[in-house]
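The methods section describes the discrete structure representation at length, but only in general terms. What matters is that the chain and its backbone geometry are given together, residue for residue. Nothing conveys this as quickly as seeing an actual entry. For illustration, here is how one protein appears when written out as sequence plus structure tokens:
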Amino acid sequence: MKLGIFTKTFQRPTLDAKLEAVTAHGMHEVQFNLSCAGLPSLPDDPDELDAATCAQIRDTFARRGVNMSAISGTFNMIHPDPTVRSLGLQRLRVLAAACPALGTSLITLCTGTRNPDSMWRRHPDNDTPEAWRDLLATMEQAVAIAAEYDVVMAFEPEVANVVDSARKGRDLLDAMRSPHLKVCMDGANIFHAGELAKMHGILDEAFALLGPDIALAHAKDLIRDGAAGDRAAGSGVLDYGYYLALLTRAGYRGPLIMHSLREDEVARTVAFLEEKLQESTKGGTKAA
């Protein structure tokens, strides 16, 4: 596994300067957000992502020797207003159509929440059959878009979203039955209230259910359960040795993308993860 990072971590005036900051920390893999190129994360208009714009972005990546491991395509897939969901899908199509020209084939998604104000806040209606039906309908269209443009959508199980567990993630994969739908694994996102005491068991279940379908792995940390992690890797309670050992055992060889950290935390987080990765390759920490 190679270390990578969200491009949004670095506050710089240009994309080139952001990528320069990435490589200054010895990394060459990123999860990209179009906002880092002065564009909406999900553009409304294909003209915003025309051939010249895509070529300019791709050339900047090539010049800096950075790989666009994935691009962010998150929108609220079960927003209570169907018009909002429809607009999200239209914008996702614009993004997917541009991916070949941008130089990536992986789009990250969140499965959404009934909370109308934030994709990252839980709502009790997330657990209703109606919310699940809306997710299936939205995801079916997203997967069709992915197939049309030969890209992969990777959703992230997260306790505030409708897919709030590995079990629901498996159910979603089984319902879609598509090679164009995979998982973005984040070990800090899947602990409901009271579950930290069962950390290894929860992680074991997540990898047993989702391991073969992991297309991207995130690295951040948490200090409490019942909410998604929002701390730099190594600054919380996630057993990183165990998490990385499970990724290795699952056969994951892609990038490990850091996020939820400040720029002044990057150097020590890189050092922490490099040490843990070395331990995992030497068998220093074994998963059950």
Notes: Residues 34 and 41 are 5 Å apart (CA to CA). The chain is about 40% helix and 15% strand. The mean pLDDT is 96. The first strand starts at residue 3 and ends at 6.
